[in-house]
Write a structure and sequence with these properties.
Elements lengths: L6 E8 L1 H13 L5 E4 L2 H5 L8 E7 L3 H9 L18
Antiparallel strand pairs: 1-3, 2-3
Length: about 90
């Protein structure tokens, strides 16, 4: 029986949408990710007071690399709820 790797939480976010964005970036770089969250949040659709909180868990061996990769991701504008455009001119 294979041993389970030690998982560490590298980031917490509100809602599955943003968590899935983070997971896709990490998995594209070969980092396995587990999303940990309460089942009531997605079912009810509430992201209030920690109910919709999602923890991104990765094996401890990948933690530093995962944090560095996620630091490059542009955070959504909390006031507006969208990703602001970037200047690509």
């Amino acid at each position: 029986m294979a041993e389970k790797p030690d998982l560490v939480c590298i980031r917490r976010c509100q809602g599955l949408l943003l968590a899935e964005l983070y997971r896709s970036k990490l998995e594209a770089w070969g980092i396995p990710v587990l999303l940990r969250y309460e089942s009531a949040g997605p079912v009810i659709g509430i992201t209030l007071d920690g109910l919709g909180e999602v923890a991104l868990m990765v094996p401890a061996a990948f933690a530093d690399e995962a944090v560095a990769l996620l630091d490059e991701v542009q955070e959504p504008d909390e006031q507006e709820g969208y990703f602001p455009p970037t200047n690509s001119a």
